[in-house]
Amino acid sequence: MSKQVQQRIDELREEINSHNYSYYVLDAPEVPDSEYDRLLKELSEIEQKHPELITPDSPTQRVGATPLDSFTEVQHEVPMLSLGNAFSDQDLSDFDRRIREGVESDMIEYAAEPKLDGLAISLLYKNGVLERAATRGDGRTGEDVTLNIRTIDAIPLKLRGKDYPAVLEVRGEVVMPKTGFEKLNQQQIKKGEKPFVNPRNAAAGSLRQLDPKITATRPLSFYSYGVGLVDGMVLPNKHSKMMDRLKSWGLRINPESQVVKGLKGCISYYESLADKRNSLPDEIDGIVYKVDNVKFQEIMGFVSRAPRWAIARKFPAQEEMTKLIAIDIQVGRTGALTPVARLEPVFVGGVTVSNATLHNQDEIDRLDARAGDTVIVRRAGDVIPQIVSVVKSKRSGKPRRFHMPTACPVCGSETARFEDEAVTFCTGGLFCEAQRKEAIKHFASRRAMNVDGLGDKLVEQLVDEGLINTIADLYHLKVEDLVQLERMAEKSAKNLVTSLETSKKTSLARFIFALGIHSIGETTAQTLANHFLSLDKIMNADKEQLLEVPDIGPIVADNLITFFKQQHNLEVVEQLLAMGISWPTIKQKSKTEQPLTGKTFVVTGTLESMGRNDAKAALQELGAKVSGSVSKKTDYVVIGENPGSKATKAQDLGITTLDETAFIALLNQ
Ligand code: IVH
Fold first, then answer.
1. pLDDT at residue 418, as a whole number
2. CATH code, 84-314
3. Is the pLDDT confidence value at 415 over 70?
4. Is 90 exceeded by the pLDDT of residue 645?
5. What phi, psi does 602 have (nearest 5°)?
């Protein structure tokens, strides 16, 4: 029995390790995550029943149970070196010349590797088992971070194959991939904790945790780039060959690594990697060139703490220090107020930066950024420049804290910010010049007033030419005005005037939606129309009355009240009605009178004859409730093309499903 158990354990461990190898080292995953998790679960269950069979190198043993009190010191037998820097092609050319002269050869082959922006780590494998992991520290003395390093899935606890040396010290970089970094920071912010400034700090902070359980939750990864102490093997004569050996033992090597020929090869590698820099999964701050031939490395030797056979060619810095001159407000086309940092111009990430977004009040509070401060600006690739921190030690005097304005700097309307929302926005809507074009585009759009032939481009043209200022002006447009526009033929002009006329006959729900009130989408507009039956009643409803409406919460209620409180909005509505916009009166129907009252629908997939929102609106007009998710309370699920998991769930729960034909038939009944 026990023999069989041991056999299954061995099988599972081997399979899991082999999947890890395919995933991390070969970058070619073989099985889906679910299968991997299943294997791990099976192994863990067997081990729980037979704890005597657990070994430290089992894939279940990555996260230790007890936190440390402190890290112990580790002496590096072979010192961990640093690298000299090259900031230009000239520096690189000088380096290449020194090598060529030093080893008396015309052309040198270099192993070119991305310079990863993480943390140098030493991994000590004895007889193939990871025994100790240490930070670089000052190069001679580091800290023992074995328990934390064991939690990183990209680092094998046991080497593959059999031909590894008895003692193998692998050196490499622990990094936090960019996507993991973004996710971690979102979580930090959600938890009310400080986000990390960059992936390197996040990686360092994660390895410095005394509790390996915390490290285990951090998205860390690892790439090997060299060896330290090795015993029990004849080293290959090339660095690149050594890397191939490491790879065969299950250690991850950066896939961008390449052997290049001479200075020319170095420069073209630099150019191609610089181009790719932003799309690489990990943050890199340059390229490391290493003389590939180990004999040549020996000839070149070392100066102080750096080898003379390797150099780091740096990319332009992505972070620089500068002064925050002022914080200005920009009003976006959706009405959002965005604070913008005006900076003393600084060269960073390859361009001169004089503005950076500060996002919102929360972000400014988090940074505690104030006009006059010295700040660190980061521009990574095409990303909008950001302020990552304030250098508090350089603050002089007592600069004032920043507060978002209470009036819109463009139109003077009140600004508003609701609980749980980070954005402050202008309530001017239809009136605010910053939002005018967007407001008009929305008003004319298909699902709002449905003005045929009035596309976004034409709205821009009309506003730019001064022909319209507000949505009400649309209905004053005449064929004579329109034909003056570039690329506007008389026929199109006539058609547009006709469509405007046609659009006047609408529904109350469409009209409410067309006004573009913050957070009032089509569904809410329909709900309001169904409930209040007239525009007057909606405009005059107080908060209490609004909250009585199903699915209307305090944010929507406040938005409606603020909108209809503004004189300029009331004027626009009045003008529109005066121009003849009208809708059929909705007769008070008792709830039970509507054919679909009390029924809950879910719509999933793409419908051929109408958009999902139109389908929802049609259902609501018939009294149905439309929900976003399938539950036991759902009565019908309408299934279009390429439905998602909702269709399967409906079937599982035995809910009636309707295809498009059946759905249309139901609507027409
Ligand atoms: S080799 C003998 N290769 O850069 C040379 N280092 O500035 C020792 N680094 O401490 C380092 N990517 O943390 C080497 N492909 C790479 C690297 C790399 C990043 C870091 C490493 C080292 C620092 C030196």
1. 74
2. 3.30.470.30
3. yes
4. no
5. -130, 135
Render the burial of 180-202: b for 16+ CB within 10 Å, e for the rest: bbeebbeeeeeeeeebbebbbbb
Residue 1 binned pLDDT confidence (cut-offs 50, 70, 90): low
Cα torsion through 642, 647, 649, 650, rounded to 10: 180
Domain boundaries, the chain: 2-61, 84-314, 319-394, 405-588, 600-668
* Ligand 1 close to Cβ of residue 472 (< 6 A): no
Question: Confidence class of residue 349 from pLDDT cuts 50, 70 and 90?
Answer: confident
Determine whether the shortest distance from the Cβ of 210 to ligand 1 is under 6 A: no
Task: Give the whole-angstrom CA distance, residue 471 versus residue 493.
Answer: 18
The CATH number given to 405-588 is: 1.10.150.20
How many whole angstroms separate alpha carbon 32 and alpha carbon 23?
10
Structure tokens at 311: 């150099």
Write the pLDDT tens digit of every residue in 44-53. Answer: 999 999 999 9
Q: Which residue among 80, 81, 115, 175 is best mutated to probe the pocket of ligand 1, counting the most ligand atoms within 8 A of its Cβ?
A: 115
Choice between 3 and 511, residue whose per-residue pLDDT is larger: 511
Q: Looking at the CA of residue 120, tell me the nearest atom of ligand 1.
A: 13
Q: For domain 2-61, which CATH number applies: 1.10.287.610, 3.30.70.3450, 1.10.760.10, 2.30.30.100?
A: 1.10.287.610
Q: Which of 115, 158, 238, 290 is catalytic?
A: 115
Q: Output the residue whose Cα is nearest ligand 1's atom 3.
A: 225
State the SS3 of 580-626.
CCECCCCCCCCHHHCCCCCCEEEEECECCCCCHHHHHHHHHHCCCEE
Give me the architecture of the 600-668 domain, per CATH. 3-Layer(aba) Sandwich (3.40)
The confidence score (pLDDT) of residue 592 equals 57
* 8 Å CB contact between 184 and 196: yes
How much is the pLDDT for 399? 92
Whole-number Å distance, alpha carbon 330 to ligand 1 midpoint, is 43
Q: Is 153 in the pocket of ligand 1 (CB under 6 A)?
A: no
Q: Is 239 in the pocket of ligand 1 (CB under 6 A)?
A: no
Identify the residue whose C-alpha is closest to ligand 1 atom 1: 225
pLDDT level of residue 296 (50, 70, 90 thresholds): very high
Residue nearest to atom 24 of ligand 1 (CA): 82
Span 172-210, pLDDT tens digits: 999 999 999 999 999 988 887 888 888 999 999 999 999
Any ligand 1 atom below 6 A from CB of 258: no
C-alpha torsion sign, points 553, 557, 558, 559: positive
The residue whose CA is least distant from atom 21 of ligand 1 is 120
287 C-alpha to center of ligand 1: Å? 9
Residue 537 a catalytic site member: no
Q: What is the pLDDT of residue 612?
A: 80
- At residue 135 the predicted structure's pLDDT band, cuts being 50, 70 and 90, is very high
Class of domain 319-394: mainly beta
